[in-house]
C-alpha cells in the first residue's frame, strides 16, 4: 500500500489553508473567545471568528435585514439575533419536547418555529443574552444544538415512514447510532452552555478522535431513505443510505456518495451533484462505513477553497473508483454489490394512515415549515393542544411537514377534534403544486439571501395556480422549490421547477428535475422576474396538459419537449 | 461699542415725549468717557434721588422695606455672588458686573461654590443672583454657601448692604424660595437692603433689567461719586465677533437632520436633531445647553379658541410695545398655554364668572389651589370654569410668554463646526381623558423637518465643564437622554486628542431599541477614545437594573478612578436617577475607601468644591 500513499495527488493540507481553517485550529476545539464575547454588553453581536465557531454549537448570528438601513441611520447596530438549530435524529421528538420548543420560541424566539428540510427545528430571533438559557432548556429536554451547523456531520436524516412502522423503528435506531457516533466529542459545548466543569485536556488523548482539531473542511450530510419514498432526497446527501427491506426485515443499505446542492452564481466550477451508489452494507457495518467516509473527506477534502471543499468535489476531482478503493482500504473489507431499488417520489403523502403496528399517523401540510399562529389560522396553538394530550410522537419530514405519529386508537378521536377545532390541514384543499412546494427561510434573517423565498413562494404559487387550473392540472403533483441563494437549503436543484434567487425580485429558473429526486434540473432562464416566470410557465403547462404521455411527470416532459437538456451528473449542470 | 442702547420711549422710561426726543438725539453721540462723566454728574445732583423702582408687572411683587437714604459713604467695592444651575443667574451676574464696572465700581464676581465663606464678613456691598431648584432648593454648587449663611457661623453683617435677585418658575410651589431665603437671612444678619428683592418668573429679562437699574441707581447714589477718573482708558473691543443672538433675540437655526434614535418596537421616541449655526457667530462649549423656543400644539390652540368661541383671525396685542398678532399666532408662538400658574389663575379668576374659581383663589385655600392647577392646561381651566364673554385680548394679556426649553447640547463644536445637536425625548401621556404633549419635544418630534427653522440661543453652563487638564480621567453617568452632553464630551476629547481615560455609564429600557448613539459609542470604544462603558437595560431582565447597580458592581475600579483624580459628571433625571446615583457614590466611597458615611459625604462635597463632581440634572 506504500505505493498508493505516494500517488495520492497533492494532499490539500499541503496548500495554504482558508482563514476558517486557522480559526478552527486556534479555537481549542471550538471554544475560541466565545465565553467572553457572549458577555460583551455593548453589542448584540459576536466577532466573525467566534461566529464561525458558533455554527458548530448550532447557531448562526443573523440580523433582521428588513431593518438594516433604517437602524444604521438611527445610529443603532443591526438588529443582531441568533438562529438556533435544534436537531433530532430522523426528526422524531416526543410531545414533551414539542412543548419545550413551543415554549422557548415564545420565551426567547420570535414566536414561531421553523421546521427545516433536514428534519430539524429552527428558532429565529434569539438575542445574545438569551442564548445560554435557550440552549440549556433545549438540553434539559434531551435535544441538542451541537453540530446542527458547522464543519461536522449534521443532523442524520431518516425517512419517517408511517406506513412500515416496524421498518421505520429499525432504520431510525441505526440513524441515531450513526449520529451519536459522529457527534463532536469536545467538551466546549458543555462548558460554554451548560456550565459544566472545565476539564484540562491531557496531551495524550485526542479530544476529537474522528474529526481532529480542525474538524472537516466543510459540512457533511447523511440521509437514509426507505424506498419507495425518496423524501430525504438521498441523492443530495454527501453520504446516502437506501434501506433494503425484504418481508418487513431490514437487510441492509445501498450506499451512495458524493451528492450536494450548493453552488456559487457565476462560478462554473461549483455545481449541484447527485450521489452515486457504490455498493451495499449490512446494518451492523453502517457506522464503520460512515466513519471511514468522514475520515476520507477529513483527510482529502479541500481546505484551501471553501466553496470547493464539499465531499462531492473530493470525489469528482479524484474519481469514484479512487474513493471506493480508499474506503475499502480503510474499512479492511469490501462493500457488497448494490441491490436493486426503486423510488416513486420525493414528496410527502398527506393525511391519516395506519401503520403496521396498528397505530395511526397523520401527515399535516405545513407551508414552508413555518409553525405560527396567523390570524384565524391557529396552527401553533392547535399543535400545542395536541402535544398536551398526545401519547405518540411528532416526526418532522424532510419536506418541512409534520407527522403526528403513533396515535393510539384511544387518542385518535380527541386529536381529530383538535385538528377540526383549529382547522389544521393535511392540505387536501390545496393545489398539488402547493403541497409539493418548498422554500428556504431567506429574507429577512438569512445573511446569504439575495431574494425572497419563504415570504414569496406562496404568493407566486397563488399566481401559478390559475394557469394550472385552466389546464386542468390542479391535482397534478409537481415539485416546485425556491431558495434565496444558490446554497440550496430547499434542495432546489432536484425540483421539477425551481427558482434560485439572484437579486431582489429576480431568479434563475430551472426545469427538469425528476419526480423521484434522482436527476438534477437545468437552467432555463436567467435573472427573471415574476411576469416572465408566469409567461414562461403558461405555454409549457398548456402543452404538458395536452401532450403528456400517461403517467409522465412534468420534469420528464420538459426534457422530452426540448425545453431543457437532461442532467444526469452535476458535472454537466452548466454544460 | 460695548453698550447697546435701548431706544428710549415714553413707554419704557419716566420721560415725556420732548425729553425722550432730546435724549435720543444726545445719547447715541456720547463716547464712553462722556457717558461715565455724565452719569456721575447726574448722580451727584441732590434732586435726583431715585425712588424705589418697582419690578415689572411680570415679576411677583415683594414686600419692601424702605431703602435708607443715609449719607454714609460706602466704598465702590461690590461683591456679586451667583448660584446657577442652568447658567441664567451666572449670565445675569456677569451682565450686572459689566454694568457696574462701566460705572467705575470694583467688582468681585464669583459663583457661590467658589466663594470662600470667611470672606463674607469683609463684604460691603453684596449682590445675590440665585435660582431655585425643584422643591425650593438652591442650585447644587450653591448649597455649601447657602448652608453657611444660614448657620450659626455666619458673621454679623451690620456694615454691609445687599440686594437679591431671585430666579424661578411660578409653576413650581416654592417659587424663588432660595432668593427669598437669602433675602430674609441677610436682613437678619443685620445687612441693609439696598433695593427690594425681585422674584423673576421664567421670562426674567425685563424684571431682572429693572432690578439691575435699581441697584445701579442705589449704589451710584450712595457712592462717593467723584466721577471716577480712573476709567478713561476703557478696554479695547474684544477681537472675536460676538454673536448678536441671545435669549431675547434667538437665532433662526435651520434643521439639518431630525431622526428618531429609537428602533422599531420601542415605547420611546427620542429625536436626534442637528441644527445649523452658520452665520450666527454663536459659540458654545461641551456642557452648554441650547435654548429652544417651541410652538404650542395646533390642536390645543384650536381647541382653546373654539371652547372660548373666539375667532382665530382676531388681532391681539402681544407686547408692551404694542406688537400685534392674530390670536392663533399669539397662542401658537407667544403664550404659554400648557401650564397654569398661581398668578395667572388669580388674575383669570377676576375675569371669570365662576364663583367656585373665585373662592379657590381666596386666601386660605392655597393647598386646594395648588392641587387644582397641578398638571392642568388652559383648556382644562376653560372647560372647568366659565369665562363667557371674556375677550381674547383680556385673556391673553394675563398669560406668560412661552418659555424656551433648555436641552443639553449633544455635539462637540470641534467635531461639528457651525452645528449644534440636541437629543430630545418626546413626552406624551394622557390625563383627564385627553392626550397631552410635551410642548417642545412633540413640536420637534412631529412638526419639524429638515429645512425648517427653529429659534434657538446658547445657554452657557460653566457648572458642567470638561476638566481643564486633558489627562484627567472622567466618569460620565447619563442614562436616557442624559447621555447627550457626553456625546459632546467624548467627541470633544477625540477632536482635541485628550489623553485622559473616560468611562460612561448608560441605561434605558431595552438594549435592542433604546441604546442611544450605540454605533458611535462602539466606534469610540474601538478607537480607545472611550475607555470603558457599562450599560443597564431595565426591561430586558426580570430584575430592573439601573446605572447605579452597574456602578456598584464596578465599585472597586470606580473608586480607583476617583483616587486617580477622576471627575464625575451626572446628567439626566433629577428626582430618581441623580439622587440614587449620589447615594450610590457615597456608598462606594464609604465602602471602598473604608470611610464613615459622614466622611464619604465630605469626600463628595470636596469633589464638588473642586469641580470634580458636576451635575446637569432636570
Can you offer a commentary on this structure?
The complex is a heterodimer of chains A (575) and B (618). By secondary structure, chain A is α+β, with helices and mostly antiparallel strands. Chain A is 32% helix and 18% strand. Chain A is built from 18 helices and 22 strands. A 5-stranded antiparallel beta sheet of chain A has the order 1-2-5-4-13. Chain A has a 5-stranded antiparallel beta sheet with strand order 3-16-17-12-11. In chain A, strands 6-7-8-9-10 form a 5-stranded mixed beta sheet. In chain A, β18, α16 (457-470) and β19 form a beta-alpha-beta unit. Chain A is globular and about 70 Å long. Chain B is of the alpha/beta class. In chain B, 34% of the residues lie in helices and 18% in strands. Chain B has 21 helices and 21 strands. In chain B, strands 1, 2, 3, 4, 5 and 6 form a 6-stranded parallel beta sheet that branches. In chain B, strands 12-9-16-7-8-13 form a 6-stranded antiparallel beta sheet, covered by helices on one side. Chain B has a 5-stranded parallel beta sheet with strand order 19-18-17-20-21, sandwiched between helices. In chain B, α15 (484-496) links the parallel β17 and β18. The longest helix of chain B is centred in the C-terminal third of the chain and has 20 residues, at 574-593. Classes of the chains: A alpha+beta (575), B alpha/beta (618). At the A-B interface, α5 of A face α16, α17 and β19 of B. Chain B: Keywords: Amino-acid biosynthesis, Cysteine biosynthesis, Electron transport, FAD, Flavoprotein, FMN, NADP, Oxidoreductase, Transport.
Write the layout of secondary structure elements.
The complex is a heterodimer of chains A (575) and B (618).
Chain A: H1 2-7, H2 19-25, H3 34-37, H4 48-56, E1 59-63, H5 68-73, E2 80-86, E3 92-93, H6 95-107, E4 113-115, E5 121-126, H7 131-140, E6 157-158, H8 165-182, H9 188-194, E7 222-225, E8 239-246, E9 249-257, E10 276-281, H10 286-300, H11 311-318, H12 320-331, E11 351-354, E12 360-364, E13 370-371, E14 373-374, E15 377-378, H13 379-389, E16 393-396, E17 402-407, H14 409-421, H15 432-435, E18 437-439, H16 457-470, E19 480-483, E20 497-503, E21 506-511, E22 522-528, H17 530-547, H18 554-560
Parallel strand pairs in A: 6-7, 7-8, 18-19, 19-20
Antiparallel strand pairs in A: 1-2, 2-5, 3-16, 4-5, 4-13, 8-9, 9-10, 11-12, 12-17, 14-15, 16-17, 20-21, 21-22
Helix pairs in contact in A: 6-13, 8-10, 10-12, 13-14, 16-17
Chain B: H1 17-26, H2 32-44, E1 77-83, H3 88-102, E2 106-111, E3 125-131, H4 143-149, E4 161-167, H5 177-188, E5 192-193, E6 198-200, H6 205-222, E7 251-260, E8 270-276, E9 289-292, H7 298-307, E10 315-317, E11 324-326, H8 327-334, H9 342-351, H10 355-360, H11 366-373, H12 378-384, H13 392-396, E12 405-408, E13 419-425, E14 428-431, E15 434-437, H14 439-446, E16 453-459, E17 474-477, H15 484-496, E18 502-508, H16 511-514, H17 518-526, E19 532-537, H18 547-553, H19 555-563, E20 567-572, H20 574-593, H21 597-609, E21 613-617
Parallel strand pairs in B: 1-2, 1-3, 3-4, 4-5, 4-6, 17-18, 17-20, 18-19, 20-21
Antiparallel strand pairs in B: 7-8, 7-16, 8-13, 9-12, 9-16, 10-11, 14-15
Helix pairs in contact in B: 7-8, 7-12, 18-20, 19-20, 20-21
Organism (chain A): Paenibacillus nuruki
Pfam family, one (chain A): NIR_SIR_ferr
Family (chain A): Belongs to the nitrite and sulfite reductase 4Fe-4S domain family.
